[in-house]
Fold these 3 entries.
Entry 1:
Amino acid sequence: MHRLRLATDADVRFLADVTLAATGAQGRLPADFDEAAWRDRFAEWTRESIEDPGTELYVIEVDDVGAGRLRVSRTAEFVEVNGIQLHPEVQNRGIGTAIFTVLQSEAARSGVPLKVNVERDNPDARRLYDRLGFVKIGEEGGEDVLEWSKAAEQNRLWNADVAERYDTPGVGMFAEDVLGPTVQRLAQLADGGRALEFAIGTGRVAVPLSEYGVPVSGIEFSDAMLEQLRTKADADTIPVVTGDMATARIPGEFTLVYLVYNTIANLLTQEEQVACFRNAARHLSPGGRFVIELWVPELRRLPPGVPATVGTADPGYILLDTYDVLKQHVVSHHFHFGEGTDAQLFRTPHRYIWPAELDLMAQLAGFTLESRHADWTTTEFTADSPSHVSVYRLPS
Ligand SMILES: C[S@@+](CC[C@H](N)C(=O)[O-])C[C@H]1O[C@@H](n2cnc3c(N)ncnc32)[C@H](O)[C@@H]1O
């Protein structure tokens, strides 16, 4: 178990020791390294950091024992890691990844990027940042400047290629027997008012709902998905704000907010999912509804010791879901292939949610559950239903 605690003057020596141990183990200390002079400069700089109101200097503790050093600055424009060192004895245990994941989630919540500089002679650190989705945005001396943002990550995930292949008119999720009942039920739940779709995508539902007579607006992160929507409906017909459905605001008051096709699970932390419910409530008039379409986690299909399930194995397409049950994460691996041996892989990470947890999130945002059905035609929801359409309502 690791935890962070704010450093004090009493930690200066430890912080120097751990920095030396980490840098030395990577073979990155210069041949003419003057340890005494370095320790004096480091101590002075550490004391300044402890007093600096814009910076937090932490001791990373593992099992209650000091094991690392972390320095973070926070401004209105970004969160920045100004240094992280872990003692060699605790490296490769996922502690760095866990710390950065928490900081990514903090940055996402604040709607700002997370920045870090990495020395060009530190390939281990660079590999970690690449894996976490950081991209290089510049150079400073011997360092690369890296940045991660939720918007950039979603744009990478939902890029032009994916957006162009997304629509399958008349087939699959675009089939009339899927969209017809969806649109009719949403129109009924909008109750004569305006609807807002979170993560509107290419307008799979929004376009036919708008054509059905319900005024629809949207929030969407991906520019490429939005570009596809714009080939079907202009900004006067379906206004869209580019942003995060957990935080972004769009003008107007709505009687219905809806979030379909399992997309609440694209928010990867419980905090962001709760924020999404609160954001829905903010956009609704009294008595307004928030509708969620979501699958029921398929953990019953996981045999002990097997971390993955095969969702589909059709000619040309295989869906493999890999689970991290501790984080409540599932990554869907979509393999598309033809006759030959080549395949295309598209991966989407999700945080799965049980119906009961979803209801609690709703409660935190002031909603109560009005109905839960197995589908858009109000089929009864049972213990065997693979997914559900849940309707939450604000008090009138
Ligand atoms: C599976 S698609 C669903 C699109 C559409 N709702 C539909 O039913 O076809 C997921 C969409 O969610 C968007 N998305 C993911 N996370 C988002 C977020 N935090 N805020 C806004 N849009 C997001 C993606 O860009 C993508 O367009």
Entry 2:
Amino acid sequence: MHVHVMDSDHPQRFGWRVWHLDGARLSPPIHRGKMRFGARVVESVCQHRTDPLALAPDCNCGIYFEDADRAFQRWCIEVDRVGADNVAVTFGVAVGDVAADPVLPDDAFRSPRWAILAILLPPASPAAGPVRKRYDANVHMKTVSPTAMQYVEDAVRADLRRTPSPEFFETLRAEPAHAQDWHVMDRSPERFGWCLWRLHPDPPALSVLESPREIACRRTSSGRLYFEDEGGPGLIYHTSGFYCARQLGVMAQAYSDAGWSDVDGLFAVTYGIADGAIATIDGTDGHRSRRHFPGVMCIPPSHEGLKPAMERDWGMGAVPALSTYVFHDLEKLMRTKLAHMSDDDLRRTLKR
Ligand SMILES: [Zn+2]
């Protein structure tokens, strides 16, 4: 008897993802620059694995997807942030390994590669035509709701009723994926990241959270500021604001457990470019590099008063907010700002 492809394999292989719409492009709300795109497939960029279809044991890299209920909740949150015209939700399938999301093990999963099988947009969405063309997937235009999502799942099920399972997955495994538009942040995703600092308000200064040591704060000949860990193990940074925010929570808890009060005012983060050799840190999502060129800084809202002095002395924007969403918005801003940066420009920026 023929078993339907959606029932044939890992039961959690099929699920939903929420995206921001950037023109006709589906763009991940988090982890920008950490994905490669094919016609229908998205693939995570992971320095920890050798087989592109396997998950590495030491990291949480992967394309995350979830069940319809959770995706619908996430869709509502993103619509509140950026408006219904700028959010898409897609039904798709994991290609390669599948593992549970370490944070939401019952509701969400990750896979190194994920294929879009159908796209759901609100009625009369102007992006429908271009998105259909770009991703070669059916676009359904309906008011987004759990019922509409069930309709889309049923439509995919009907489409795939005669598709043999091995061929279906072989095709998706073989589809080529590449960095989207070859943005500098996609070509070198490991170079862009968030450094977490202890903030000292008076006078304003930053220090590393690990073993106390002197971090040099210098300027290039063109006046650009950078931090350098001379002779030390290198500055730790996270390539996504999501992990930076998570680490921030871990540190706040650790300081609170150690008896510190007002832990929310203790930290600052900078987002920028890592220079020189880069090392990944086993068992974490962190990286190390000797030098960090910050482009923007986030300080605790309680220290908003430091903003003018920091902007004047450091020559970069200081945002008085520390949240995942603010980090994502700043990553987005950096992406826009560096849209035309070539690899040569990047080298020149890092030149001392
Ligand atoms: Zn990884």
Entry 3:
Amino acid sequence: MEDPGKTSQTPQMITESKPCRGCGQTFDICAPMNANGTYARILFRQEFCQPCIDRQLHEREETDHQVRAASLIFRRQEMLANSGIPPKFLTDSERLDGFQDTGNEKTYATILEYARAFPSMERPTGYPSLLVYGRNNGVGKTRLVCGIIRHLLESWSRDNRHQSPYLFLAMPDLRLQLQMGLRFQAERTAEMVYADCKLAWLLVLDDVGKEGLYRADDAEVYFKLINDRYNQQLPTIVTSNLAPDKPWVKGGLCLADIMGLATMSRLKEMCQSRVVEVRGEDRRG
Ligand SMILES: Nc1ncnc2c1ncn2[C@@H]1O[C@H](COP(=O)(O)OP(=O)(O)OP(=O)(O)O)[C@@H](O)[C@H]1O
Ligand SMILES: [Mg+2]
Ligand SMILES: [Zn+2]
């Protein structure tokens, strides 16, 4: 039943024709007339026809999309540049997917799987660590682990960061940075260097125990770093020319000798059996 208090009336419409400022074609604007015979003049201020308005909106969306895509490419490059990866391993030929190596198929498969399954763009809490070792120099250890960070940053899909959350650092450089950081008026204090390593979502520590050099205070750095990252449940990748527990030659050193037993124990748990060897001859020769 109709409500007697309500009067249902279709408002009378008023139409005005004018040329579109965009395409010049004449278009109509309609507005409802009020009961007192007036109408909202504001509705007639429209200067473009509907197709022109739609086109403008579409063009604006396209431009926004292009700006976002360009900004993302820029961010990725920025993060790659400040990730610590040496420029040599940022060249086209060094990409992880392009790798092939007869004799190391299983190792390559493990590393590729590790990179692909890595939780991207979020704190990788609890994701496994990785230990990559190989007796010979020049077999591709550094190239492989840099490839993991590249894989992660090259597929980064948000333009919300400048600083890479993944950090590559060779142990001799870390040692130097920590020493420099202890100097009075150092640009980056030892605490700042250490904090970057401790908090990185992924830390790649290359060349651990290089040339079998052993420094008493290195073991302390390894323990502090690995123990902190173990407690924070953050993944760490370690590469070395030394085997984990058994020296290559009698009387030589293994990684456990350099890093310490407590550190190795934690690292092994973190790796969840992802301990891989890279075999072969020196490719630099
Ligand atoms: N699968 C591959 N195919 C072709 N070239 C490779 C491959 N892996 C590595 N290389 C090349 O071999 C050289 C040595 O690689 P890389 O520096 O990664 O070795 P490494 O094992 O880290 O050596 P070191 O123990 O001395 O640090 C580099 O020039 C690299 O580009
Ligand atoms: Mg190397
Ligand atoms: Zn128009």
